[in-house]
Fold this protein.
Amino acid sequence: MKFTAKSQDVQQGFQLAPMIDVIFLLLCFFVATQIFSQWETEIDVKLPTAESGDIPGRLPGEIILNIRSDGTMIVNRQTLSLSDLSNLLRQIVGLFPGQPVVIRADRETQYEHIIRVLDVCRKLDIWNVSFATTEVITTE
C-alpha cells in the first residue's frame, strides 16, 4: 500500500459562526442587566430633591439599596433585615472589593434607618457609597 501526501492548498478563513455566538451572548447579557437595573428604580420610593449635583453614569455591578419610609430595606426586590443585608454585603465585598452601593432612601425615611445602613457599610469597609436624589424642577 502506498501512502502519498497530497498537497492541498487549504486556506484558513475567519470563522464567523463563533463570532456571531459571542456577539449574541454579549447582547443578551447587556439587555438582561439593563432590565434588572430598571427594576430597582421602579420600587415605590420618593427620593428627596437636590438643587445641585450631577447625574452619574451607572457603574457596572453597583448595588442599589432602597430604603422605604418605614425603614424597610430592599435589594433586588427582596426585603432584607439588617443582619441579612450585612451578610449579603459581606459576601459581595468578599468577591468584589470596592463594590459601589447606591442608597435610594425615601424622603420620609427617618435618619436613623440610613445611619444603620451606613454603619453596616462602614463595618464591611464599603467606601464607594452614594445617595440618589431627584432634580428640583423649577418653573420660570
The mean pLDDT is 78. DSSP finds three helices and seven strands in the chain.
